Amino acid sequence: MDKRILDLKSEIEKQLSDLSELAELDKLRVSYLGKKGSITSLLKGMKDLAAEQKKEFGADVNKLKEFAAQKIEEKTKELKDKQIELEIRSMPRFDISAPSNQETGSYHPITLVQRQCETIFKSMGFTVEDYAEVVTDYECFESLNIPKHHPARDMQDTYYLENGQLLKSQTSAAQNAILRKYGPALIKNGTPIRAIFPGRCFRNEATDACHENTFFQMEGVMVDKDISISNLIYFMKTMLSEVFRKDINVRLRPGFFPFVEPGFELDISCLICGGTGCPSCKHSGWLELCPCGMIHPNVLREGGIDPDQYTGFAFGLGLTRLAMMKYGIKDIRDLNSGSLKSLSQFTDDE
Amino acid sequence: MFLSMNWIKDFVDLSGLDEVELIHRFSLSTAEVENEIFFKGKDISGIVVAEIKSVENHPESKKLHLLKVDTGSGELTDVVCGAPNVRVGMKTAFAQLGAKIGDITVTPRKLAGYTSNGMCCSESEIGLSDDHSGIMDITDDVPLGTDIKAVYDVEDIVFEVDNKSLTNRPDLWGHYGIAREFAALAGRPLKPLATDDLTVYDNLPKVDMKIEDTLCKRYSTIKVENIKRNISPVNIRIRLYYCGMRAINFLADLTNYLMLEMGQPMHAFDARRVEKIRIKRFDAPFTFRTLDGVDRNVDENTLMICNDNTPVAIAGIMGGLDSEIVDDTTTLTLESANFDAASVRKSTVRLSHRTDASMRYEKSLDPEMTVPAIGRFLYLLKKYDSDVQVVSCLTDEYAVKFPPVTLHFDQNFVDRYTGISIGSDTIVHTLTGLGFAVTLDGDKYTVDVPSWRITKDVTMNADIIEEITRIYGYDNFEVNTTRSPLYPVRMTDVKNNEEKIKDLLVKKFALHEVHSYVWAYNSELKELGIPVENNVKLANATNPNIETLRNSIIPTQLCQVKSNVSYSPEFGIFEIGRIVEGLDENNLCIEKKKLAVTLFSKNTDVKGLYFRLRDILAAVTETIKHTELEFVPAQPKHSYEHPANLNAVILNGKEIGMVGIAHPVVNKNIDKKGNVVFAEIDMNVFADVKDNGIVYDEPSKYPSIEFDLSLDMPNDVYYSTLKSCWSNEGNGLLKSVKVIDTYDTPLIHRITVRFEFSSNERTLSSKEVQEIILNIAENLKQHRVFVPNLEALINNV
Fold it and tell me: Which is the CATH superfamily of the domain at A109-343?
């Protein structure tokens, strides 16, 4: 083999072993393999050789070329690996067990329970209605079979306004409007009325941990040709089992409300003890939860619906009470306090 | 109201039945029973009737006496007793050795040197009354040694019914009506009330009585002489006491007893004071002293019972002091009447005086009851005071009658309403048990409603459903879903938007949802220096702090921010709530639903915070309406708004709300170091804005050219007004315009805008772009907006 080739080979080997920077490696490649590189130059001197020698020399130079390329590639990989290794070693181990203080938003607990109830009823074909807070005497009382001077008006300490209107004391105040809104479709097409209307209610009373003058209810109505007490029990049981995500037993007791007949108080099996009796249910095993009943014929009639042809049920669920039960909120005033120490905890609850 | 099982059992045989279980069923079928049931007399035993044979003073004690007591065993027992009323020959309740009173077992006990082998008891000690002035004085003829429980009705089961749950049941305000319910629940007959036969007095003279005002529906009266008894029999006193009333004297007790038994309030007048009964109202207000000794102001709307022209009782509420039964009363005029329920209720409210009688009259009592109640009263009076003499005939004026109610319905009606099958036998049996007269013809029912249910309670067919189902038991119902057809359910835009906004604000911007009150809180606003703006007021606010309705949520929210400044150096709150903007032309409140957002920060400067809020609003509108927001400077109208930094928020040309910075005075009152910005959006106006939806723009395959321009703007020119400078330029090649920087001092207002150009057909030449930019710059000049170094910039494209 030509001495120049052998010399060049050992020179490459030596230079590569001394090399430690990737940038220098690139220079090295150019100095041997570039257009003006040492190996390329060897080929240029070939024209002076005899034909046989030419063939052999050419083959040897090509081998050297391959050798150099391979060695440079190996060195490149070695140096790159080293660099990554160094990068890895230079990065600290981060302790993500320590939390950063990312701000998370929150929903009002009423929104959370309201959404749960709405989702359940929507899935059963109920519409969700919105209603005013300032209503007329007709909406809140007259249309609900509570004529003037009826004792039931004393039962609710209503906030009256200067102009004779009032702050609704019950979500039932929307019943007449709902019946009138959907009644025509019921009568004409047989589309049953299925609606819930969550809303804020007001009672003129002193506030303490258990009493608020401002609270949320959710009213529900269903009217069709043959709606029965049996249906009412079914819907209440189903809805409450979904809300509390466990099988809830319900029981009805007679209850007097002028806008239903028969009217009921609905109790649910105690959420704490399941019905065996404990301090939170005063050892009765039951919790009084919501008034309900079959819509009074006078209320249907006032809503433009013939009570001889149609029947319906209505219920009024205390959303505020439900939220307090569900999340163990002890002071009802926390809900309207705007205190983020309380409210920021309710991030979501789907 | 407390109820005694012994009393109920006077009228229905419940033998062999679990009484506690029946009370529980009563609670589920009739009216709510409070949880605690009282087992009276269960905690005493070994107490017998004994006679005091001798009394000696204790040598060293002024109070104690040494007694010898005969319990009928033949031997006398030594007892030391401190009661002041001991006397030889007196019979009393004696707790023998081994007797139990509550947790105490009676044992021999040394008292001041003498051993007492038992204890003489007061009525209070054995729970028969609250009388502890001395030991029980037993006047009845009872053999010595008899257990007290065998003599008197000491043992009883007493339960309490929630009065509210009886509001619509005038018939349940006495034991007899309650017994009717128990009889129906147990399926046993109700016994008739034993009454005196009033027809035997028909030939006696009438009482001079006249109803002059039909607020009195019925007045029945009778006069009785020669009353000797003064103290009520023990069993009557026990029942009154167990049911929460105190014994007073025999006649007063007997009227109370009748009220608790039949629900009919009665009044006993001393006949010497009431000779000419007139029931009427007076023309002018006056003062009247009731039998509790209180002077009450009675107005001209209040119905009175009078002795001719002198008022002697407030009708249905309370008798007068001057005509009440006193110790020497021997002649009584008995009132058993019925008054208009609403009138009694209103009088009660005006007088602020509610009594056991008025509570009952308010419920619309059955006027048919007045005469049987007199019969019952006389029956009991004669039973316990045999010498009494009735000296008048029953004098009864029935001014207003309730019309009878007969209901007609068929089996299908019941099936449809209940959703289950309740057999006709059960229906007939149930209704009959409750006192309804039922005729069944095929599947058709005809039902006569008894008088005690027609006054307000049962007037139509739906009421009958309740009677049938409550006794049938709701626990026994088969539960079924409906068979109604399905239709799509659509939510309103307001509702949809509301939910999306809440999600965005909570999930994307980490805001906190809060609730607040619909009225302004005067004291809290005062702390912030915000005067309460005039608006509709509550007519009956009990708290002057909350009398004015709010016309914006922002002041409320500023108060909430203040109360939260220690929570975190930076936070944002929002509420979707109601406000009232005065009255409309029909004098009705203009109620609006608003979204209010307030941001607070000690970390971010006021500009950064203001822009963050702007971006939140933009994100909301762009996500929900796919429409860009515009802002137009506005003049502040409220004290809490910053004079220089308030903008109307415009969407699709409609003003949907305001966004601004808090006035420095208010801001400093909230926190000296923090910045406060707020926005309020009208949810209904927002909902009415059309959603433009997603308009898909095919991305170009050719490279785009970006070009940044810094705009030097006069202080009175706003970015939002400049859009026309570029919106019509470039023939669709201008793809987007973004603000990438703003720089503000009181003198300089500079905005850097990035324009992006591209074509879907070709690569753009720099010359094309240069021309468009020059046109835009030319347009900007007309708004007095200049681009520094425009030439140099153009050449760099």
Answer: Bira Bifunctional Protein; Domain 2 (3.30.930.10)
- The CATH fold assigned to B493-688 is BirA Bifunctional Protein; domain 2 (3.30.930)
Fold type of domain B43-154: OB fold (Dihydrolipoamide Acetyltransferase, E2P) (2.40.50)
- Looking at this predicted complex, what is its ipTM? 0.86
CB contact under 8 A, A104 and B167: no
The answer to whether the CB atoms of B474 and A151 lie below 8 A apart is no
Measured between CB atoms, does A284 come within 8 Å of chain B?
yes
Per-residue confidence (pLDDT) for residue B326, from 0 to 100: 84
Among A110, A192, A200, the residue with its CB nearest the CB of B484 is A192
CATH class of B705-795: alpha beta
Cα–Cα distance, B712 to B787 (Å, whole number) = 6
3-class secondary-structure state, position B601: strand
Mean pLDDT computed over A43-71: 83
Cβ contacts of B160 on chain A, cutoff 8 Å: none
Question: Least CB-CB distance to A340: which of B479, B499, B567?
Answer: B567
- Convert the pLDDT of each residue in B429-467 to its tens digit: 999 999 999 999 999 999 999 999 999 889 999 999 999
Is the pLDDT at B181 greater than 80? The verdict is yes
Burial class, B326, CB count within 10 angstroms (exposed 0-12 / middle 13-18 / buried 19+):
exposed
Instruction: Please state the rounded mean pLDDT for residues A326-340.
Output: 92
* Short-list B335, B159, B131, B332, CA closest to B248: B131
Q: What is the mean pLDDT of residues B144-173?
A: 95
According to CATH, the superfamily of the domain at B198-398 is Phenylalanyl-trna Synthetase, Chain B, domain 3 (3.50.40.10)
Residue B186 predicted with pLDDT over 60: yes
Interatomic CA distance for residues B263 and B366, integer angstroms: 9
- Please report the pLDDT score of residue B698 as a whole number: 85
Question: Between A129, A200, A227, which is nearest B482 by CB?
Answer: A227
CB-CB contact of A346 with A108 (8 Å): yes
Closest partner residue to A134 (CB to CB) among B420, B502, B589 is B589
Q: Is the pLDDT of residue A155 over 60?
A: no
Residue B470, chain A, CB below 8 Å: the answer is: yes
Q: Find, among B159, B157, B138, the residue nearest to B147 by Cα.
A: B138
Q: Do A282 and B466 touch (CB under 8 A)?
A: no
CB contact under 8 A, B515 and A129: no
Span B128-138, pLDDT tens digits: 999 999 999 99
Nearest CA of chain B to the CA of A176: how many Å? 18
Question: Stretch B394-399: mean pLDDT, rounded?
Answer: 97
Q: Topology of domain B406-476, per CATH?
A: Phenylalanyl-tRNA Synthetase; Chain B, domain 1 (3.30.56)
B104 band by pLDDT with thresholds 50, 70 and 90: very high
**Which residues, numbered 143 to 162 in chain B, qualify as contacts with chain A under a Cβ-Cβ cut-off of 8 Å?**
none
> CB–CB of B466 and A261 under 8 A?
yes
The whole-angstrom distance between B30's CA and the closest CA on chain A is 6
Chain A partners of B460 at a C-beta cutoff of 8 Å?
261, 297
How far apart CA B5 and CA A322 sit, in angstroms, is 37
Q: Do residue A234 and residue B480 have CB atoms under 8 angstroms apart?
A: yes
> What does the pLDDT average to over B73-101?
94
Facing B417 at nearest CB: one of A129, A151, A311: A311
Identify the weakest region by mean pLDDT among A276-280, B273-277, B510-514.
Answer: A276-280
Q: What is the mean pLDDT of residues B151-167?
A: 94
What region, left, alpha or beta, does residue B363 occupy, with left being phi > 0 and alpha being psi -120 to 50 degrees?
alpha
pLDDT of residue A348 exceeding 80: yes
Angle at B439 between CA B437 and CA B444, to 5 degrees: 130
Domain boundaries along the sequence of chain A: 3-90, 109-343
Q: Is A344 left (phi over 0), alpha (psi -120 to 50) or beta?
A: alpha
Global pTM value: 0.85
Q: Estimate to the nearest angstrom the gap between the alpha carbon of A268 and the chain centroid.
A: 27
Q: Which of residues 62-121 of A touch B (CB under 8 A)?
A: 103-108, 110-111, 115
- In chain B, where are the structural domains located? 2-30+160-186, 43-154, 198-398, 406-476, 493-688, 705-795
